[in-house]
Amino acid sequence: PLNNLPYGCLTNGERTPRCGVAIGDSVLDLAAMEHEGLVRVANRPVFGEAAWNGFMALGSGAWSSLRARLTELLVEEAAERGRVEPHLVPLSE
């Protein structure tokens, strides 16, 4: 559910590990979302790293901002939902 979006890292073995958020039976690739301009929390990319350290160093304002933006993007009727769906990677992959 949207009130519980666990953070972690994802890789499919072909790409370098990067930050993601679990949602249902998928993981949202935040590095791809950031690259496409769908999420932005800093003046530099932070989600293409294999750890959340860069993002966590930004502090609670960035954390709250990301959580609010993810909720806005992931609701069923979100206007940008079509741009988000290609970045939902099935956990099986």
Your description of this structure?
The longest helix has 15 residues, at 60-74. This protein has four helices and four strands. The protein has a four-stranded antiparallel sheet. Strand 1 and strand 2 (18-23) form a beta hairpin. The model has no long low-confidence stretch (mean pLDDT 91). By secondary structure, it is α+β, with helices and mostly antiparallel strands.
In short:
This protein is α+β, with helices and mostly antiparallel strands.
Oligomer: single chain
Percent in strands: 15-25%
Low-confidence stretches: none
Indicate the mean pLDDT.
Answer: 91
- Number of E-type strands: 4
Summarize the amount of helix as a percent range: 25-40%
Number of DSSP helices? Answer: 4
List the helices and strands and how they pair.
Blueprint lengths: L6 E4 L7 E6 L2 E4 H6 L17 H4 L3 H15 L6 H4 L3 E3 L3
Antiparallel strand pairs: 1-2, 2-3, 3-4
Give descriptors for this structure.
alpha+beta; 31% helix; 18% strand; 93 residues; 4 helices; globular
